[in-house]
Amino acid sequence: MMKTKRFIVNKITLLIMALTLMSAGGTKERKLEISFLLSDIQSFAPSYQMAIWIEKADGAFVKTLFISEYLSYGGYNLPEICHEWSSKAKWEEATKEEFDAVTGATPGTGEVTLKLTCPGDLLPDGKYRIFAEVHLVDEYNELYSAEINVTKKKSAGELKVSYIPGKCPKKTEGDLMTGVFVKLK
């Protein structure tokens, strides 16, 4: 009788463990790596404030992946700084956990690689758009974007630039960021 009870308890324990592992597997974090060269602009002093986020293919906001400190602590209230992100993110509603998870120092000039994560339940397999917006000066921002296909396989893509509201007339150099790539791991 004692062996039968122990056998049943062991089987139930194994079943609970298996169900726990299976449910945890569905919410595995998605790992992304964004790399770029952040230029040292000489014709004026850009702010370099930056936000990186992801949207569904239909334009629905999914999640902020990275935001520079000044922008996160109140700069998001200034409509000229990373307006595309701040108009969608509802950052004033961010939880402390989200705030802490995605806020970081403004990247310095040179080669930059940001290792970012997103909960798997927010990013199931499918097509998405990833954005990186960087503030130059006044109302001028550069918006980098690419379509990404999230699957269980690794993938990569290059983000292309657009200018908001247009190219900054003060800037005589090229784009603020070059070689902007995303890798999904």
* Overall helicity: 10-25%
Largest sheet, in brief, is:
6 strands, mixed
The number of domains is 1
Give the overall shape. Answer: globular
> First CA to last CA: what distance?
51 Å
Mean pLDDT: 88
| Number of discrete helical segments | 4
Radius of gyration: 21 Å
Strand percentage, roughly?
35-45%
Order of helices and strands: HEEEHHHEEEEEEE
Tell me the number of strands. 10
What order do the helices and strands come in, and which of them pair?
Blueprint (H helix, E strand, L loop, with lengths): L1 H24 L4 E9 L11 E7 L4 E8 H4 L10 H7 L6 H7 E2 L5 E9 L7 E12 L2 E11 L4 E4 L1 E5 L12 E8 L1
Parallel strand pairs: 3-4
Antiparallel strand pairs: 1-5, 1-10, 2-3, 2-6, 6-7, 7-9, 8-10
Notes on the protein architecture:
It is a single chain. The protein is of the alpha+beta class and 185 residues long. It has a single domain (27-184), classed as Sandwich (Immunoglobulin-like). Helix content is 23%, strand content 41%. It contains four helices and ten strands; from the N terminus they run αβββαααβββββββ. The strands form two sheets. Strands 4-3-2-6-7-9 form a six-stranded mixed sheet. The chain is globular and about 80 Å long. Residues 18-25 have low confidence and may be disordered.
